Amino acid sequence: MITAAQIAKHLQKAKRAGDGSWVACCPAHNDKNPSLSITDTDGRDTPLLHCHAGCEFEDIIKHIHNWPSSAQPEYYELIPFTQDYHNPRRYIYKDTNNHPVYMVERTFNGTGKTFQQYTIDKGKLTRGIKNVDRLPYRLPEIVEHDTVYIVEGEQCADAMWLYGYPTTCNSGGAKNWDSNLNQYFTNKNIIIIPDNDEIGNKHAIKVAEELHGTAKTIKIANICSNLPEKADVVDYFRANVHKLYKLADIVSTIEQWQPGDEIDDVDAIKWILPHKMEY
Are 212 and 218 in contact (CB under 8 A)? Predict the structure, then answer.
């Protein structure tokens, strides 16, 4: 975890603001008058960064040498199983000892996306994970946190981590939660963020039901409900936004989920967050 104060001390003209946050010159542009806000937020490993001159989040953190590398998505550089895939994105599932166990390969073919799963054994890939115990995505990182977000899909999980929110998902997408995953969420505070469609809502309820009695608390944060159908967290971050809200503050207003509860829409909320997140 890194604090706003730790970030600010390496930036020019840094000073504490009245609300406890920090302001400093943005390192991503020739900033003479401090335009970068740096704010600590509960439930995040890293502070919120917002350049009032419009610099992108990813450009800012490139110039902050003590920004934790663990906040960056990790992609495993293995040779694809075949050469038929076009620009695949690979997501590695590791055990608690940080050993790669299996991989999900997400491929864009020009008209849509396909997924393929591989078992990893001594650096070799074997198609399929039929005989492999399922693991939560980014398991070695989430085990260290008391509060964990659960989303649909690896790209959404990585997007959340970019903003410091410890986040995971199951492999295989909606409707594929495996009971073996439950053990890793014992006594944790769980926030489930569904995609904005019927399948996403059913998946969120399924996960909540699976973790009930294992997790300490469970909330379902339906923050994509005001976006077009099938929208997810990445779409939410890409939205054209005007006002900053802290995700932890939003979650604090949501009642804990109990068996039999329906999923309530969260009021339309707009954030100032980086756009152009390409996955």
Answer: yes
